[in-house]
Amino acid sequence: MSLDLPRTDPRTETRVASPAADEIRQRLEHARSTRVAQLKALDETGQSPDDHLMSTQKDAIKRALVEIDEAFARVDDGTYGVCLGCGKAVPPERLEILPHTRHCVACRRAI
Predict the structure, then answer these.
(1) What is this structure's pTM?
(2) Which of 4, 23, 52, 102 has CA 20 to 30 A from 77's CA?
């Protein structure tokens, strides 16, 4: 996975997307570009690779990038916004704050 380029999917290039799907993709792309910038900033600090805090931060950012890519897949297959735990709709407010979330608040707390 290249971290330098925005995620594009040739399958969605030819598909007519709804305005809501376009907005979701924009939010996810913004979340992705923010995480990539954070990762680059950490790489540019010149800290020792043995720095535990930096390593933990990088791991968390990389996990978020994977979750964002998974959210793009859920948009494509029509399951975006459905909690993977209970199967109910994730509240729009939660998706606005954390567009790549996979769970509603109750299921996330149970994990």
Answers:
(1) 0.78
(2) 4
